[in-house]
Here is the input.
Amino acid sequence: MASFSDIIEEARLSARAMLDYGDSFFNPTVRLGVTGLSRAGKTVFITALIHGLTRGGRFPVFEPFASGRIAQARLAPQPDDAVPRFDYENHVRTLIEERRWPNSTVDISELRLVIDYQRQNGADRTLTLDIVDYPGEWLLDLPLLNKRYLRLNPVFDRIFQGTDVHFRPV
Here is the structure.
C-alpha cells in the first residue's frame, strides 16, 4: 500500500505535468524549417525576418505586427546545443556593413525567437519560434538516396539493362 507521502509526491508530479501541458498550450513552440534550392535566398530571408521582428521592421501585410499586437520579439538560447546556431549577427553585418550576400549555408543551423504578442481577444501570449535553416543542396539529394552511383546516369542505366546506346553527334 502506498504511503501518504508517495500519494502527495504523485499528486505533485501530476500537477506539474498539467502545468507544463497548459503552458505549452497557451505559449506554443513552432518549429519552422526553411528550405529551398541552393542560392534561393534562404539565409537572407531568415536574417531579414529576424531583423524585422526584433527591430520593429515594416510588415504591412502581417496583421498582428501592423496592428501593434506584437509587443516584442527577442532571441533566446536554442533548444538543441548539438545543432549549430544560425549566425544571425554575422549575416546582418555582412548584409548591412559589407553590402554583400552571406555565404551559402553548408550545414543545418537553427535559432530561437521568442515573440510576445496579444491575441485578438486581448489575452497576452508568447510564441516560441525555432527557425531551422537547411542547405539547399539537401533538396537535390533527396531523390538520389535510394540509387546506386552508376545508375544515376541514364546512359549507364541503359548499358546495365542490355540496351544498345547510340551516341549522336551534336
The beta strands are 29-34, 70-76, 109-118, 124-133. The first strand starts at residue 29 and ends at 34. The mean pLDDT is 79.
